[in-house]
Amino acid sequence: MASTIVLKGRIKSIKGTRQITKAMQLVSASKMRRAQEYAFRSRAYRDMAYDLLRRLNATREVESQPLFKVRPVDSRLYIVVTSNSGLAGAYNANVLKLLAQDLREDRANKATSKVIVIGARGVQFVRRLKDVELVAYYSAFDDEPTANDVRPILNTLMQLYSDESVDEVRLIYTLFKSNINQVAQSTQLLPASLDEISGDKAAPAGTKLISNFEPDVETVVTQVATRLVEAQLWQAVLESKASEHSMRMLAMKNATDNAKDLIDDYTLELNTARQASITQELAEITGGAEALNG
What we know:
Elements: H1 4-57, E1 75-81, H2 91-108, E2 112-118, H3 120-126, E3 132-138, H4 147-162, E4 168-178, E5 181-190, H5 217-293
Parallel strand pairs: 1-2, 1-4, 2-3
Antiparallel strand pairs: 4-5
Helix pairs in contact: 1-5, 4-5
């Protein structure tokens, strides 16, 4: 059994750790609420972009447009959204695991892989990978990012796709569903497709739309597809921020609860050790008194 001095030191150390994790839990809870509201407000914009793409995709004029044309995939670009710091449960691990799965599929299909990473945790992982090109790295954005923050990424991926340096662009991020449910997912950005859109937003079979394009089809379709990709990038960052804060809050809550349990266990052990020490001292005093009387 450990001495009372050692046990007191452990209890003091764990109490200090519990104060830190409790503070991080409260901070993450506050940030999560703001990030959640921010993400929810912009979902309507993303849905409108999906609906507009659905309408465009139902017209014959866009069939020959580069952003809607499917090419054989010889090179694939990934946009990966992670965080700068850890202590967020499985937030980064889930995203990187999904990336690793996609990279294995590329290797099996003999397709080259390129990655644009948001967040320090992601770039630490990608730099250790073999035969994967790190195109660019961006530090994780603030809690309230703007469209201007993601525009450099948008310009890079659109340029790579227009030059046919890559044949497909995928976005890997964490979708915020609730405070206790966040799902890492991989979504196709380019070529523009409806395959990634849920059933309630999919174009009905046989839909025919009569559309007039001003000034011309190419200009309208290019601008709309660009704005759609931008909307998805921006929303992915917002969803990831809300997910990160939520998972960090839960992780710190679990750490705080575990610290409390450890303190209770060590306190019980301390009381047991103290009682044993008192019992031993009483036994020694009694034995000494009997020896003197004898």
